[in-house]
Amino acid sequence: MEVRGSSQPLAKVDADALAVPVFKGEKADNEFLKTLDKAVGGLIGSVIKSEEFSAKEGETAYFHLSGGGLKARRLLLIGCGERGDYKARQVSQMAGTATRFLRSKNAKTIAIVPRGDDDAEKTAQYVIAGAIMGLFEPDKYRTKEKEQREITSFEVVIDGADKGALQRGVERGRIIGESVNFTRDLANEPGAYMTPIIMAQRAKAIAKEFGLTFDALDQKQMEKLGMGSLLGVARGSDEPPRMIVLKYTPPRKAKSDGLLALVGKGITFDSGGISLKPGENMELMKYDMTGAATVFGTMRAIAQLKPSIPVLGVAPCSENLPSGKATKPGDVLRAMTGKTIEVINTDAEGRLVLADAIAYARKLGATQVIDMATLTGAVSIALGDVNTAILGTDQVLIDAVIDAGREVGEKFWQLPLDKEYSNQIKSDIADIKNVGGKKAGTITAAAFLKEFAEGISWAHLDIAGTAWGDPATPFRSKGPTGIAVRTLVEFVERAARGN
Ligand code: BES
Ligand code: ZN
Ligand code: ZN
User: Fold this and answer.
1) 345 lines ligand 1 (CB under 6 A)
2) Beta bridge partners of 340
3) Among 399, 362, 353, 369, which Cα is nearest to 460's?
4) Order of strands, edge to edge, in the sheet holding 2-6?
């Protein structure tokens, strides 16, 4: 799909279909809708008046136009709820609804008039990213009834906008939307097609394409470094693990001493290991590498947007399977930092691979770490699929991530991490144990990670509840959501600008 911006008046927009947002309570009497209504012979006024369409979020009204004052052949009205709530999130969702809906109607060329309050650059970015994300489908391996229709061109129309700003926004939106879909594509792959080795190949490919440095530690190298925590998870599997490292180095480095690392859990399939999971929904555990995929997607975008600070991406990748060699409940592992861990439950493996990854990021010079992981089922109980949990040791960092999320339309909610929670992970025979009992499962998982984030600024995102969308919505297919990529890109760019 070709994407572009246009600052033409809407009557001149040439496309198979034109999509416009409509807000709750709006009548066809304000300047924008009045002009449009007139051009389409009163269709808008009539559909609103009939109460067939009330502009609830995600609602649509669709017309074929004959003659009239528009060059576009069809018109799609998209409900966007309250005018005052129409921010980045709603703008992107509106664009996703437009592309999904109009693709299903076989429209090839689409234009959107977003009516956003942000400047043209931002509005165009949110529209294009949302439009591209809307088109993601998880049906890669379907041979029949596959979604085969394709939109060939997509135009965001902001009357009178500065052409340069519009162009920048379109390009940024394209980079970000494609990178979110890159993450979703990896997360969607079956375990057999996305092993740690294949993860490394995919990371290497983006490094080559967009100019990042790439490294992947193999088992021997990890043994040398004493990564007993990660290796304890990998032991039950025939597929070898990898610690994947991507690095972005800016063309012109801003003055800054610290180094930010993004660290993502890369369990390419989580069966639970010896503490085997129940069969129901186990197939979803292919997406237990979404944290790693989020790191790759974010690095892929950063490499193209070129902010002025260096960023490290670290992805500890392994399967978690049972076998005669597998780590057993009761075993004790020694992490890279020297800390000993009693494994109570082999299904709490994400924190084990992250422990060595955070330690390795520190070894590579990271002073600030944001990790992301499909870490606990408990986070869905606490926050459902609406908010991503954020916890950490640096309130300034946590607030900055939450703020970046608010800007781009992704929601985070902080959970507490008082030191008392650490009592729950005390072990009788080792330094710590890998589960903290039934209470506060998301928090005790974070308390475990905190043990490996000493001396650095650290935040942790538990994306287990938000990384997989079910059911589909008007703006997004069922399946991987790509959550947090947009937020992390925004966070890095803000950090590079020094705010
Ligand atoms: N990968 C799972 C968490 C998960 C659950 C992700 C559902 C996505 C959807 C993780 O490795 C896990 O199994 N966690 C256990 C921890 C428990 C044994 C302390 C859990 O949440 O049940
Ligand atoms: Zn698990
Ligand atoms: Zn897991």
Assistant:
1) yes
2) 334
3) 369
4) 2-6, 153-157, 109-112, 17-22, 74-79, 60-64
pLDDT at res. 63: 97
CB 341 within 8 A of CB 330: no
Is 38 part of the annotated catalytic residue set?
no
For residue 54 the two structure tokens come to 């009330």
Query: What is the whole-number distance in angstroms between the Cα of residue 21 and the centre of ligand 2?
Result: 42
pLDDT at residue number 330: 98
**CA dihedral over 257, 399, 487, 468, signed as positive or negative:** positive
Active site residue 277: yes
The rounded Å distance from CA 474 to ligand 3 centre is 29
Atom of ligand 1 nearest to the CA of 467: 8
Pick the closest to residue 412 from 483, 330, 318, 335 (CA basis).
483
Tens digit of pLDDT for each residue in 272-323? 999 999 999 999 999 999 999 999 999 999 999 999 999 999 999 999 999 9
Task: Map tokens 């085969």 to a residue.
Answer: 148
The segments of the chain whose pLDDT lies below 50 read none
Instruction: Report d(CA 92, CA 90) in Å as an integer.
Output: 5
Q: Which of 4, 277, 411, 478 is catalytic?
A: 277
Cis peptide before 322 (omega within 30 of 0): no
pTM of the shown model: 0.98
Give the tens place of pLDDT for each residue, 235-270.
999 999 999 999 999 998 666 789 999 999 999 999
pLDDT at position 255 is 67
Catalytic: which of 351, 433, 476, 486?
351
Distance, CA of 22 to CA of 78 (rounded, Å): 6
Alpha-carbon gap, residue 227 to 249, rounded angstroms = 26
Pocket probe mutation, ligand 1, options 282, 343, 347, 434, max atoms within 8 Å of Cβ: 347
